[in-house]
Amino acid sequence: MEISGPGIATTSLYYSDTACSSEVMKEASTYSDFKGTSSEAGDGAKGYLITARIQTYTLTITNDTYTTAVNSASFCGLTTWVTGSQVDVLGKTCDSNTYPEKNTTLYNSIVGSETSLIIGDYAEGGYPSSPSSPVVFMKE
Fold this sequence. Notes:
It is a single chain. By secondary structure, the protein is mainly beta. The chain has one domain. About 5% of the residues lie in helices and about 55% in strands. The protein has one helix and ten strands; from the N terminus they run E-E-E-H-E-E-E-E-E-E-E. The strands form two sheets. Strands 1, 2, 3, 4, 7, 8, 9 and 10 form an eight-stranded antiparallel beta sheet that branches. The protein has a two-stranded antiparallel sheet with strand order 5-6. Strand 5 and strand 6 form a beta hairpin. The longest helix is centred in the middle third of the chain and has 9 residues, at about 65-70. About 10% of the residues are buried.
């Protein structure tokens, strides 16, 4: 099986509390030239090896207190964060994360079974041997 398409978009929200009632940041990204091929993941799980070229990666600070903190810390090398404004972070280092340049081909793997789906982070230079920093979705 092969998967392909013009693009994919992702959005993640981050909160300062475990009840997810106080949003502090939104992360959004877009990818082009999305392609995937099926692979055997073992233990009856199905897997896909995927590639995509990153087009945008933005961070939006959504909380005034957090905006003050990231400006004080020069987060991503910037001191000009404005609450509610998107900032393109491609090519920047933010804490321990270094974001790739626009149009960089990224690699990922997705593993699924009848009860779960595991999606890792994209990597540069080749497919990860297993999903890194995996997000696991479980069937109820």
